[in-house]
## 1
Amino acid sequence: MKRWLPVLLPIVSITAAVSLWDLVVVLSRTDIFPRPHEVILAIGELISRGVLFNYIIASLFRVGVGFTLATLVGVPLGLTLGWFRPALWAINPIIQILRPISPIAWIPVAILWFRVDDRAPIFLIFLASVFPITVSSLAAVQNIQPVYVRAAENFGLRGFALFRRVIFPACLPQILTGLRIAMGIAWLVVVAAEMIAVNSGLGYLIIDARNAGKRYDLVVAGMLMIGLIGLFLDFLIRQLELFDEVKWGYSQRN
Amino acid sequence: MQFAGKTAPIVVLESIDLEVVRGEFVCIVGPSGCGKSTLLNIIAGFLKPTVGEVLVNGTQVSGPDPQRIFVFQDNGVFPWLTVEQNIGFGLDRLSPDEKAPIIQRYIDMVGLTKFEKLYPRELSGGMRQRVEIARALAANPDIIYMDEPFGALDFLTRLKMRADLTRIWQEERKTILFVTHDIEESVQLADRVIVLSPRPGKIQKDLAIDLPRPRDLDSSAYLETRDEIFHTMGMSLRVGSDQDSPRESTTTRL
């Protein structure tokens, strides 16, 4: 019985939530908000119109490019700031001022610079994810167990060899945690960016379905797809935490 | 040696003059906070003394060096490397074919045969200390510094580790400087025991231990040597008082 609970309980709770949703819609006699089966039909409609997969791919492409650029900038930047104090003193104030600005606030600027173009959401996703990645890499260096650095120095490691063989692997678990957080934020931001800056993608699907005929079944279908894909992306990035080289950095629970 | 204190500098060590012969096994004992760890860190080059100098073969020590490997109390084994990768860490100038037999030799010597591919998190505390000792030996240093390497292990593991360390030292004849707060440990291991006074640490006694190995921990010569050090440190070998003890057994001979 106990072994089935982790499978059974989610099925029970999701069934209950969907039933509650249906019940509330029926009781409220609304004709705008869709019932669960209408959302399923809407997903079928999006598939048959051939837009769903195009939109998913458009959104994933933007997240993929923006997130990759943010990783390529954020990890080296964070590690450098963590290792060289003067670099931290020089750059950190700029990061700390830019970091609290919501990526949404950059949308007008992105449109000004890139017009209605893939580059605008990619820029916004880059902005949204580069700060968590930088800050977690920076903190990772600052939190290294001093004994690892001392042991490495004892074996004569200096400069890049020290960095490659000890600093980087010692930081990797915490860097991956930063990537995971950043991926979550990137997926939130792409939807917002697509509502304004482009005319494709899941965010565009939602705002278009609402504006062009109050098709709330399509709106909710888009929301559901966003949730499921977000879950899948998090699952993917969590697989990285299972590698032997980083497993030591996470608690033994689960 | 002094450290900056909140009001006045704290003098940790005072006029230490110590000469160690090649191949000697020297233990440094003293009460907690007497500066024995600080002394070892100065000797190893991790700390700069406020006054005085450390010479190895007539050359002044200016920093850590692969010819003198430090074994840390809080285990400096790299968690992202396997047992064999850790042990081969100091051998990166050799080709894989040259490394393999050396690594295997020390894996066998510390009794970790068949654990080569495991990661440190999969090992017990005693096994992790064995990995660190093997890593130190594999780099073929002239001197090994050990800072309470068995301090975190349970009593039985500690006894076994001491027996194995003595055997390894007899095979390899490295110079070992071993810091411990455990008087029995020092008498079981060393050729020579240096007793430090409470802070500021000074050499209170420099005692040659010429007991034959393997050492008999029940022999009167061993017990006399041990008691001599206890008395030097001003310790009584009785626990509890006679007066209000309900039973005779509460007065325990250590």
Note: The first helix of chain B runs from residue 36 to 44.
## 2
Amino acid sequence: MFEFLFKYPLAAFRKGEFALATGWPLWLLALLVVLGCGLVAWLARRERSRLAAKAGLAVLVLQCLSIALVLTLLWQPALVVQSLKSHQNVVAVLVDASRSMAFGEGGLSRLQRSAQLLSEQVLPGLEERFRVRLYGFGASPERLESLAPEDWPAPRPSSAVGESVLSVLRESTAVPLGAVVVVSDGSDTTQRFDRDLLAEIRQYNVPVHTVGVGRDRIEGDVELAAVRVASESLPHSRVSARLTIRHDGQRDLATRVTVRDGSEVLASRAVTLRAGEPVRREWVDFGAGDAGVRNLAFSVEPVEGEEIRENNTRRRVLDVPRGRRRILYAEGEPRWQYKFMRRAVHRDASVQLVTLLRTSVNKYYRQGVDTPEELQDGFPAGEEDLFAYDALIVGSFEAAFFTPQQQAAMRDFVSRRGGTLMMLAGPNGLGAGGWHLSEVVDALPCELVAGEESFLRERVKVELTTQGREALVCRLDTDPGRSAELWAELPELADFQRLGELKPAAVSLLGVRHGRDLLPLLVRQNYGRGRAVIFATGGSWRWRMGLPSDDVRHDTLWRQLLRSLVAASEGPVRLTSDRPEYADDSRMLLRAEVRGKDYRHANNAQVTAVVTPELGEQLSVDLTPSASAPGVYEAEVEIAAAGAYRIEAAAYSGDERLGADTLHVRRESGVAEFFRPERNRDLLARLADRTGGRFWELDEAAQLPREIRFSEAGITAREVLDLWDMPALFLLLLFLRGGEWALRKRWGVI
Amino acid sequence: MLQAVAGRRVLAALAVLVLLAPLVSALQFWGGRDRGGDPRAWDFDRDPRAEFQFVRYAYGSGGDSGGWGRRRGGWRTDWPDAEYHLTAGIERLTVIDTAYGGKFVDPMDDELFDWPWLYAVEVGRWHLEDREVDRLREYLLRGGFLMVDDFHGSEQWARFMYSMQRVFPDRPVVEIPAGDALLHTLYDLDQRTQIPGIQYVWSGTTFERDGFTPHWRGIYDDEGRLMVAINFNMDLGDAWEHADTPEYPESMTALAYRFAVNYLIYAMTH
């Protein structure tokens, strides 16, 4: 229809420049239009007695427009457009040959439908004017002789749409490449189809036309689209995983999510996927178990009649390192909470509580130290000693006890070291201890109420906040509902401390009911690289003494709370990869953030990573400084074989070892194409739009050969396309004149 | 005549007073500032706003309270001066937030679990009922700490153990080793000196009955933490009570304070 009205394809208008072919001066056109309009206006004045003012104005406008249109046509409007010269240009046709193209639709696979369309409707038209280069692509393009079934490549385990196009553009710099045609379902398993890649493709200035194959929705398919879970956990901790489940959203589906470590089921529960809610997020909690490496499989049980079941499972590696993280707990006075806290983690495999307790005015009692020398001079005087711990707890200790340097070191322990500071209530704690005037006040998650009266020895009931119900640290049972019940049954606290307003980034997990108010009790926030927590009571020991001896709630809470303080603690070297899971993609980008003993960026370090595959030989890789950030070192590593990989990076400054970190990743094979099996129209449309091409539906792709010639790439000729004889313009003239006639007839002044 | 009769009566009264004076003095000596009656009347700070409260274990709620009846039972021996003196000492010697004076708690009262530290005295005379035995076991397993004191000789040991073994039939009573943290939390108490009761003032002996040798014994939990500290053949309570008595050796009072402070800090740290 468009071409019938406007004579040329849309691409000609998008790419062409408007011009007037006669070359007569424009001022003359404007003058004649003005004179013509003046003449009809003069004639209209003569008719004033017959037409009302508004009607006269309407007729005048229509007549002026008609005159302007006719005069403009006399000047011969045209489009000046660059078009590809016949038989001198190359068009590259890329056909997706990945495994997802084998999905059947209407009795034919996607690849069969593509081949049929290209052979019958597209290639003949292209070959009339251009030399056509055929490619099949998965992770990379490969030349094809023809689209005959015997020439089809074997299904590829992955697809890289963007990188394949880029690869063809690079190898075609020596030939006059006029356009690229991509026939695909839009599945790009590399996760590298981003703005940078598009910009690089665009630099070649070759339009990429994309033809979408496949259904936008696959009925009855349930897919585990993503799993978000920590890569490392402390032994015997609770781990929470976020599962993103996609389904067609057409009807309610009952299924079950399960977490397995080998054949052992760690967690399993029923889930109902609701109609109208195509993306659902579910949280699953499970125990990390003993120290070691866990190969976890997260799965969604297939629903009845589900076609593609390979996308119901995702795998992750969870590292549960040996060794205990160390927490320094400085307490200003002997008290019951100190005792029961220590008892809660006495035999904990992941947390070591090193305590410094002031017993009299000038005496200190140390527990949990590794050596007789540890803390023998009291609280660490310098950063280096303090930064050796993973978390710091300050109890009922007045701020003035610590020097300004020690207070600053506490603040930097959070912001720079990336540790966690927890402050407890007490007669000398928080506001009563003058901490509101200390160096650490900025790190704390809320304002402090000054004065001794802020600490109250009153029995108060604890309540979970909305965030507290969701927080793993407050979970007393795997079932959140049961957990809330267990909280409600807890005895009252022996005391609490009033806190001021929460800071903007703070989250309150627990509160205490005092009169009508719910006052914050357990509050936390991130600060710099670390975190700060306030637990505004010294009386949680009543949860232990007030409940039967076999009740574990007090100990469970304290274990979880103390583990949460150290769970995110990082050493001087932090090794990460660009992805937690590599599905049919063998390129892994390693990134190590290296810091010195003072936890400032180490920019002159030597960083080496040793990559150990599950099967195969070890590989040693040097990481090089990144240009994007200080103290960051990067390397690209090839992980060809499927299985788990252990990567250990060590950093040195000269002969001094700064630190090391270990990372586990998993490389999967033959699964990537099963995820997001429906057509990815957005990706294909974006690729076409950003390169000056066009996205085509499969059934309209027969028009492609006619439109593809309007391109500025390759060998082109300047072409002038007349517009004066465009049917749309004559229709417009007819509309203007017919409109005037209709109005006059309506007003009875013909 | 009348004047003579009156004079004789005055003389007789004076004679009686002179005769009774030592008895009254002795009673005061033994009873300290005991004003008689229900100790609740002297429980002057019912709601102490402090971390540590000295709490006596008022055993014998079933009637057997150490030989003198419930209201004046053996469990309240040395009360209240022992509490006054000791708590003032703890306040002075440590930074523990301490309530001045003391409280007592009935074994079957739920309030028992509000006080993680208990003091029981004259336990050589106690007899715990089954329900009290169960209660005490539960208290200790939850993390409570019991210090027992002022009982002497084999007969009283046997009576103490009759109840204690019912609390923990499977846990042995052992001698506390010299290296145990209990003896080093604040003071290093390496010398095992027998701390005598007030009878030392006139008898000159540090022991009572056949309790010649002092013993620091204890019952430990599965994690090696002391739950019950047993001062056998000693009387720390008297040493606290008579801190201001000139005749009682100051060195013994000082040592008794130190043991009490160590016990308390141990109870608050282990």
Note: Chain A has a mean pLDDT of 91.
